[in-house]
Specification:
Blueprint: H1 2-14, H2 19-25, H3 32-57, H4 63-86, H5 90-109, H6 122-138, H7 142-151, H8 157-160, H9 184-194, H10 197-212, H11 218-224, H12 229-241, H13 245-251, H14 260-276, H15 291-306, H16 313-326, H17 336-355, H18 365-381, H19 412-436, H20 457-462, E1 474-476, E2 481-488, E3 491-502, E4 505-514, E5 517-528
Antiparallel strand pairs: 1-5, 2-3, 3-4, 4-5
Helix pairs in contact: 3-4, 3-5, 3-6, 6-10, 7-14, 9-10, 9-15, 10-16, 11-14, 12-13, 15-16, 15-17, 16-18, 16-19, 17-19, 18-19
Length: 534
Amino acid sequence: MVRIAVRAVTLNVYHVGDDSVNRYISSAPHKDYFSKLISFFRKQSMDLNKLVSHTLINPGPDSTSTIIAAIDEIEDNLYYFSDIVSAGIPDVGSLITDSILMVLIFPLLLPSLRIAIDNDMQSGVVTSLYLLCCILRIIKIKDLANTIAAALFCPLEAFTKSSGGFHPEGVLMQNDCSCPNLSLRDVLLAYVTKGDDVQVLGSLSMLATLLQTKELDESMLDGLGILPQRKQHKKLLLQALVGESSGEEELFSPKSSLTRDGAGSDIDAYHKKIKDQYGISFLSSDVGISPHVNRFQVIDALVSLFCRSSISAETLWDGGWLLRQLLPYSESEFNSHHLEVLKVSYKNCASDLVEEVKGIWSDFLISVICDEWRKCKRAMESSSPPKEPSCVLFLPHPHKFSLEDNTSTGSSFDAGERMQELVKVFVLLHQLQLFTLGRASPEQPSIDPPGDLPANCRAQISGIDVSGPKAGTEISLVNAVPCRVAFKSGKEHHLYFQAISSGISGWLVLAEEQPSQMSHGIVRVVAPLAGCND
């Protein structure tokens, strides 16, 4: 309460708008207050990382509420910084920008993004990505946003050689990502293609936040490879209208992007500032900026993500949202390899979904597909990503229902959740297939109702003659549903349930699978099914 009262008083003073008051605020020793604020915020950031790290190791019943409270305080402080900046005192805005960069971002957050073998380091990556997203979203300072974006092109070692991040001691990097020239942007893309669910979601949140940051120059977005296609075309159209020679040609080129000179000159200016003003040393030759190449790398990373069966469906939806932002109405930037791997991934998922027809939740399958289709379409077409950046702090979820693992746990609840997870992946891949064909996703999926299938085919497939099934006879279990039946308390039997019809006759069958012959079983119980009429 005391802190809130002090902030209210200070903000009233900052917004007086008198030049003499502004000079008083920004002069020594009063200006030290702002650097102390950032130092206090740095301590809060480190405490948040310790809390997340502890929760990863020893999750407790109050872990979520404790993290939420810490997030609220973190974001309250950032909004206070934003309110100070909005007062329009030039020197104060510069003080806050410099302090955030020198005290927090360069020595702590950026070094913590390095790729480490030790899973204990994951909390540092997650916390850093969340804090970077919050800073970009809340503190509206153009110079700060562009400096952060420009720093992503710098080699990772430029920040790690003099700072340790959240984990200063003994961090080992993965062999395939240990190149000293690896940029922070490359690290983000490496997390998308090779990281776990948490790292993927954190990197996607960072890229989405950069894309939505209005303070960032378009040339900076283009250099990062995340300038939305519609903004590219708008820029090239303006160039063509004012008579610039290359504008019209590039506008209708499938590989159109802003020129290297346009993107590079702005980034080079910020790199010079990072070196001269903030003392971060790196060779300019280490920084590669080619908008077209970088854009291809982003699209390639996203396509690779959609082929990863170990990543949760909701995280894949975030990747789908980002792809649709980059390519809202054109599939021209996909190459033949992208189209092929997306098609293979879609077919594999569709094949897995067909197997769910035999599952215990098959009667809900169509309704779940229709429901998730609408949700996925809304998520892809939304103006903001499906998940907030803070969501990364409430994982892990080591991916609970990996689509790489088709083994049944025996729980009907788990089977239902796995079916829903599979449907979510399927509808995303299906909508991406429509997109690659240049077609819009319909409001509802095209589904042929099961009632259109001939009813007597079940009797034929099951190998039943006109006399019907008899106890002890062998039948095919192709259309049977696995279930558990208990005739006595504590004694369950794993059986298969099947409805069979032939003409006006019908039967309900419980059969036991034969271990020696898959998809075939022995009839144990038969009951008549009334009301059949083929």
